[in-house]
Design goal:
binds magnesium ion, 25 helices, 39% helix, binds adenosine-5'-triphosphate
């Protein structure tokens, strides 16, 4: 069965059980401070489990793109080495939000696998949670009893907390789980060792395919468990593993999910898969990683130097290095695999097709730059080896290579072992640990549990219409961070505060109590559908009603910048073309930043045109047309611009100014005239094929104008109040260049005078023409004269001393004939003379110079110079 059919069968099966089928959420999480990437199907439904939001339907199913490369679920190091863990994989899942529970979840999973897909029951094993003393939980009898009705008891195994209690993170919803494992070994092997002995033993052919989680608890900050008011089902099945079972293969990589990529790698590198364990690992790593990186880029996460971008960069670098070391590919090639991936997966994930060019370009640039780093690292490593005493390279040196140049430690170890050197790996690991501790300490945050003051269905956002509102605090928690000390996070029954999102920063402002006490709100963010206001102190009498007041000035400036961003986007698509897509934005009260796909640097004319376009829309005084409840499909039909990697619901908010229409949750000006003026301040590349424009509006543009006009006044004043400063500056520049020419001519004249004088001063001793003298020339002057005299006289031994700008200079010239005959060496001579002027120098045997900080030593140096004649 083709993998495509398997995916479709799963979704159809749960549709028949009245589940709504939803699209995969983006793989990159934008508004969740606790998680960088989607690591399980349940992530996008977390707010439902926590009760912060209500789902439209209580039964949901989907296939979710997941990435397990950081945090609690990190499989990166396994990937490629084994045959069934990936960085990016699809998780098929079905959910019940307070609807059905264990009985249906278990029976349906069984029905799907054995009746629908016809997997042999004799190859399946299931596990049930055995209970845990520290958590005071007993065995999951309920699940055990349900399974007992379906399969033989000797196929039901008990599992411990590690395998059979699922938790998303350190805190949050969790519960006991029942896993389904499949044994795909040959009959012969099965006869030797029974499958049930291999369940959860990391055997590559006895693997877990489906995990059914029964969400019943919330893990609190102090580690205790609290029973949830409603019980939920959360299941996840590995799509690639299921494909392996259905296609009768022994490895995920042998399925049609990976084969096209692998055969392309074979073609490009000329290395065949299945011949050698080391090259096989490399091929698997590359086939896997190109998927992770492409999916992330397609969802808007470019490789970068920090956060999620850095994780993506590291994954790609791991692939490049495996190719470099084991497949002997020294040029960029991984980007060539994107086309294969887009063809194969573009049906289920159209973003891959749409973003194919961008993925290719970004990956190619990353490859090239990391290959350069590897090259540099190799020569640095050569230096380290050359200067090593003994045969061991210190851990600190290897760490430096790793930390400063991104040179991978296992590559260092490999190269060293090839050259019969060893590496002090223990010392390296100590350095690494030290660094980790440093950043861990810096980032440490302790979050206490929420204290609920008042039950509340939903925290309503009223900030589109109001900048002030009467609010009550419904819950709060304390957190202690290493950076800022103690902070409080407050949730209200309703709020006018805009939470950071869609590139726009969160509102600041304050809470005012009835008696006039003020508590400042320093930031607003959204987490699991809650709008969270951060303060440094807790207001007194937290149960009273407060006036929540948004800092209007900052909000209005942010709004102007946000609306200007939309106009900028429109301008770029109009002027450069519709290939321009937003790739990130940052809307601050002070400025705006907009990243977009485009391949060339913008010319000065294009920038001017963009500015003019936006300013024309501002002058048109376009009213804001906002629709908060438009059907997504209708909005797209009307031409609204939606962003890749953004999760949209069925109804969306649209923002329209004239012909600019975007799906957007941000705050905006009521009329484009409120933007006042738009001014681009910078344009640069952020990655291959991605440009960034920075701009200012309103007050910031006014401030810039004021500053520039003040500067202009000062410049005019300096130019004797000229009417035409450009002409005045050009005149000065011309005059300056004339003067410079005159000075050069005068200098040359002076030098030729001097040369004549000096030539007359040359003396002779034993057939050697010599001149040892202090002169008034700079370094170039001395050199010129020395070479001219040398050419005219022959057999010349010349030493000049000069004082220039309080420093001492020495120049020594020796005709080549003398260098050979008398074994004289100008380099050695200036080095010897250098001590008199407290300096040093060097050069060649026939010409050398020295410099020093003691001009009073020049005469002593010249005295000593004479001794070389004897
Ligand atoms: P394992 O023990 O094999 O690592 P897990 O316990 O981490 O699996 P879950 O978190 O329960 O897995 O995820 C649900 C399902 O997703 C698993 O049953 C498995 O089929 C699949 N899965 C988990 N991790 C990966 C991965 N890194 N690559 C491919 N599939 C995975
Ligand atoms: Mg795992």
């Amino acid at each position: 069965m083709k993998s495509k059919e398997i995916r479709a069968k799963f979704l159809d099966f749960f549709k028949s059980k009245e589940h709504s089928i939803v699209p995969s959420a983006p793989i990159v999480l934008k508004n969740d401070p606790t998680l960088m990437f989607t690591n399980a199907g349940m992530n996008q439904f977390k707010e439902y489990f926590l009760g912060n939001a209500k789902p439209k339907t209580t039964r949901i199913a989907d296939t979710q793109k997941c990435l397990r490369v950081s945090g609690k679920h990190n499989d990166l190091e396994e990937v490629g080495k084994d045959t069934y863990h990936h960085t990016m994989f699809e998780m098929l899942g079905n959910w019940s939000i307070g609807d059905y529970f264990k009985k249906e979840a278990i029976n349906w999973a069984w029905e799907f696998l054995t009746a629908e897909l016809k997997i042999d029951k004799n190859n399946l094993y299931v596990t049930v949670f055995e209970g845990d003393q520290t958590d005071k939980l007993s065995k999951d009898e309920e699940a055990y009893e349900i399974w007992k009705k379906i399969i033989d008891e000797d196929r039901i195994l008990l599992g411990n907390k590690k395998d059979n209690f699922w938790e998303m993170g350190d805190q949050g919803p969790c519960g006991p789980a029942s896993e389904i494992h499949v044994d795909i070994r040959s009959e012969e092997e099965k006869a030797k060792v029974p499958g049930k002995d291999l369940v959860n033993q990391d055997h590559p052919q006895v693997v877990e395919i489906w995990n059914l989680v029964f969400i019943q608890y919330n893990r609190m900050a102090n580690g205790s468990l609290k029973e949830l008011p409603a019980k939920h089902i959360d299941t996840g099945m590995g799509f690639e593993r299921l494909a392996m079972v259905m296609q009768g293969k022994q490895s995920n990589y042998d399925t049609d999910v990976f084969q096209p990529l692998i055969s392309e790698i074979e073609t490009i590198t000329g290395v065949s898969y299945g011949k050698n364990e080391q090259t096989d690992i490399a091929i698997r790593v590359i086939a896997d990683h190109v998927r992770a990186v492409s999916f992330a880029i397609a969802d808007g996460q470019l490789p970068s130097n920090n956060g999620a971008g850095y994780v993506i960069r590291r994954i790609l670098r791991r692939a490049i290095r495996y190719g470099f070391t084991f497949l002997n590919k020294k040029e960029a090639f991984i980007h060539q695999l994107v086309a294969v991936l887009a063809t194969q997966m573009g049906g289920a994930f159209p973003e891959l097709k749409k973003q194919k060019n961008l993925c290719e370009n970004v990956i190619k640039e990353e490859e090239k730059s990391f290959l350069r780093t590897l090259d540099q690292g190799l020569s640095l490593l050569d230096n380290i080896i050359a200067s090593a005493e003994g045969n061991e390279i210190s851990g600190r040196k290897a760490f430096e290579l790793y930390d400063t140049y991104g040179f991978p430690i296992d590559l260092t170890a490999l190269i060293l072992s090839e050259k019969n050197y060893t590496l002090d790996l223990k010392a390296f690991e100590e350095e690494l640990e030290k660094q980790k501790n440093r950043s861990r300490l810096a980032a440490q945050t302790e979050t206490e549990d929420w204290v609920v003051l008042q039950e509340d269905e939903e925290e309503e956002f009223v900030g589109y219409d109001y900048l002030e509102a009467q609010v009550k605090i419904t819950q709060y928690r304390k957190l202690v961070t290493k950076k800022d000390g103690a902070l409080y996070q407050l949730v209200f029954n309703l709020t006018p505060f805009y939470p950071e999102g869609g590139g726009q920063v969160g509102d600041k402002g304050y809470l005012k109590s009835a008696n006039g006490d003020i508590t400042y709100i320093i930031d607003t963010k959204k987490e699991n559908n809650l709008i969270i206001h951060t303060t440094k102190t807790l207001p007194q009498d937290i149960k009273q009603t407060f006036m929540a007041v948004v800092d209007a000035k900052q909000r209005n400036r942010s709004a102007a910048n946000h609306s200007a961003t939309h106009l900028l986007h429109q301008a770029l698509r109009n002027i450069l073309g519709t290939h321009v897509e937003q790739k990130g934005s940052m809307v601050h009260s002070g400025y705006l930043r907009f990243d977009f796909s485009h391949f060339n640097k913008l010319t000065a004319e294009e920038l001017k045109e963009v500015e003019n376009f936006v300013n024309a829309r501002i002058r048109e005084q376009l009213d804001l047309e906002e629709n908060r409840t438009m059907l997504y499909t209708k909005a797209i039909e009307e031409g609204a611009v939606a962003l890749f990697g953004e999760k949209y619901g069925d109804t969306v908010r649209t923002i329209r100014f004239g012909k600019s229409m975007e799906l957007c949750g941000g705050t905006h000006v009521a009329n484009t005239a409120d933007i006042w003026h738009f001014k681009i301040t910078a344009e640069a590349a952020v990655a291959s094929g991605i440009r960034r424009i920075e701009a200012i509006t309103g007050d910031a543009a006014k401030d810039l104008l004021t500053e520039q006009s003040t500067q202009m006044q000062q410049i005019k004043h300096l130019l004797n109040n000229t009417k035409d400063p450009i002409k005045s500056v050009t005149d000065i520049q011309n005059e300056n260049s004339e003067l410079r020419k005159e000075i050069e001519a005068l200098k040359r004249e002076k030098a030729s005078f001097l040369k004549a004088e000096l030539k007359a001063a040359v003396q002779e001793q034993n057939g050697v023409n010599y001149l040892i003298q202090q002169v008034d020339l700079d370094a170039n002057g001395m050199k010129d004269v020395a070479f001219q005299l040398g050419g005219e006289l022959g057999n010349l031994f010349l030493v000049f001393g000069a004082e220039q700008d309080g420093k001492a200079l020495l120049t020594c010239y020796i005709s080549k004939s003398l260098v050979e005959e008398k074994d004289l060496n100008a380099g050695k001579i200036v080095r010897a003379l250098g001590k008199h002027i407290q300096g040093g120098g060097g050069g060649q045997a026939f010409f050398a110079t020295a410099g020093g900080k003691n001009p009073s030593g020049i005469s002593a140096a010249l005295e000593e110079a004479k001794t070389f004649l004897d």
